[in-house]
Design goal:
Aldehyde Dehydrogenase, Chain A, domain 2, seven-stranded mixed β-sheet, six-stranded mixed β-sheet, about 45% helix, about 20% strand, globular, binds nicotinamide-adenine-dinucleotide, aminomuconate-semialdehyde dehydrogenase activity
Length: about 450
């Protein structure tokens, strides 16, 4: 083990120890006391919203507008939401009169929760884990992505002022293979909530198996949008451009396969490309910009390579990468920018239609029947989110029920109610998070029987 590895191990060890020591006091506070502290933390982040948004945009490459309107407001909302929801859970009770028994359940926090988050929505996703974990009375060791740690650091500085006792929230900064894995393998961390790639989740599953840890895994997607010929294209097209390219396409819920019914295929393509070309790529600090920089040089190369592969397979790039000029301001010439790219005539078996690209690239293909499109939409290893566009109420219900997808939006995208389960099926994840689901994940249930 080299020096850096030893330091990381030491930090994880110290963080778990602090979390373990803080657990008895934190877990014995009432939900109301914990709720008040979460609300205070939300207020403090909201007070510094602009500073957080600037930092998130600079660190990640996302546009300042996205950071201001989505990332940081949602981080604030995460704390407020779980501060409220923790006050409203009820446990179950049944009676067995013939046996003279009453049964009921009680729930208690589990202990030290290990929380691991990715780089695409840094503070948004980290707080989506920290808030429910501590609301339920657990203490945490959280590891943000090594690519985007700045806002996690800024949040740590507000903990004391919010009244979070020392040791309740511990953040370790470091690479996944070292800090993340040390947390996953630590015997005193009984549960891991992870958001990231399917590949890393496989490794976490293997490494945690000897300890029988409880896992929540929120993973990648290859999300379809299905557009029937009776869809309201005036609503559908701008929303599908947004669902394809928001945050540079670096959202697990982004659309990357668009199935369009043949009767409207040509019209859709024309209007979709026109709308995509309205999206401006450039300096993330400029509030008029829609597409910022990708996370890294390596990731940009990876995303560009998908476009090259599609072209080599005979697909047509209708706009964006390699087709249109990318004019960047002088200060951004060396940045990792890429135009939103639309590809047509891609085969279903192509890697562009099967693998998660996680960049500003979307594929558009025609379909004929409902039966066919359901089969093709389900024909990938992932099952995170899908979008269905149609004016036929019966059809949207029918299709939604048959899609292998943890979330289905019809005639909209990314409208979330945090009360309801969030998560994916197949290779997109195990478990769900949300008001009731997070409460169940972050607590241990016990069934108690009383004979009278
Ligand atoms: P990643 O899997 O590379 O990293 C995620 C986190 O895991 C990082 O903090 C990383 O340091 C850590 N990590 C890496 N190796 C580890 C190991 N061996 N043990 C423990 N931790 C380890 O993912 P990424 O590239 O940061 O994020 C992009 C991926 O996240 C995409 O696949 C995207 O779809 C997915 N994602 C999913 C959701 C969802 O809610 N389903 C949300 C956002 C992102």
């Amino acid at each position: 083990m080299n020096f850096c590895q030893r330091v990381t191990m030491y930090q994880v060890e110290a963080a778990v120890k602090a979390a373990k020591e803080a657990f008895p006091i934190w877990s014995s506070k009432s939900p109301l006391e914990r709720s008040q502290i979460l609300n205070k933390l939300a207020d403090l982040i909201e007070h510094d919203l602009e500073a957080f948004a600037q930092a998130e945009s600079k660190d990640q490459g996302k546009t300042i507008t996205f950071a201001r309107t989505v990332d940081i407001p949602r981080a604030v909302h995460n704390f407020r939401f779980f501060a409220s929801s923790i006050l409203h859970h009820v446990t179950e009770c049944t009676e067995m009169p013939t046996m003279g028994c009453v049964h009921y359940t009680s729930r208690a926090p589990v202990g030290v929760a290990g929380l691991i988050s990715p780089w695409n929505l840094p503070l948004y996703l980290l707080t989506w884990k920290i808030a429910p974990a501590i609301a339920c009375g657990n203490t945490v060791v959280a590891k943000p992505s090594e690519m985007t740690s700045v806002t996690a650091w800024m949040m740590c500085k507000l903990m004391e002022k919010a009244g979070v006792p020392p040791g309740v929230v511990n953040v370790v900064f470091g690479a996944g293979a070292k800090a993340g894995e040390a947390l996953v393998c630590h015997p005193d961390v009984p549960l891991i909530s992870f958001t990231g790639s399917t590949l890393t989740a496989q490794r976490i599953t293997e490494k945690s198996a000897p300890h029988c840890k409880r896992l929540s895994l929120e993973l990648g997607g290859k999300n379809p949008a299905i557009i029937f010929d009776d869809a309201d294209l005036g609503q559908c097209i701008p929303t599908t451009v947004r669902s394809s390219f928001a945050n540079q396409g670096e959202i697990c819920l982004c659309t990357s396969r668009i199935f369009v019914q043949r009767g409207i295929y040509s019209e859709f393509l024309k209007r979709f490309v026109e709308e995509t070309k309205k999206w401006k790529t450039g300096n993330p600090s400029d509030p008029t910009i829609n597409v910022g920089a990708l996370i890294s040089k390596e990731h940009l190369e990876k995303v560009r390579n998908y476009v090259k592969k599609a072209q080599a397979e005979g697909a047509r790039v209708l706009c964006g990468e390699g087709v249109d000029p990318l004019a960047l301001p002088p200060g951004n010439q060396k940045g990792y920018f890429m135009l939103p790219t639309v590809i047509a005539e891609v085969k279903d078996e192509s890697c562009c239609m099967q693998e998660e690209i996680f960049g500003p690239v979307t594929c558009v293909v025609p379909f004929d029947t409902e039966e066919e499109v359901i089969r093709r939409a389900n024909g990938v290893k992932y099952g995170l989110a899908a979008t269905v566009w149609s004016g036929n109420v019966g059809r949207v219900h029918r299709v939604a029920h048959r899609l292998q997808s943890g979330l289905v939006w019809t005639n909209c995208w990314l409208v979330r109610d945090l009360n309801l389960p969030f998560g994916g099926m197949k290779a997109s994840g195990i478990g769900r998070e949300g008001a009731k689901d997070s409460y169940e994940f972050f607590t241990e249930v016990k069934t108690i029987t009383i004979k009278h």
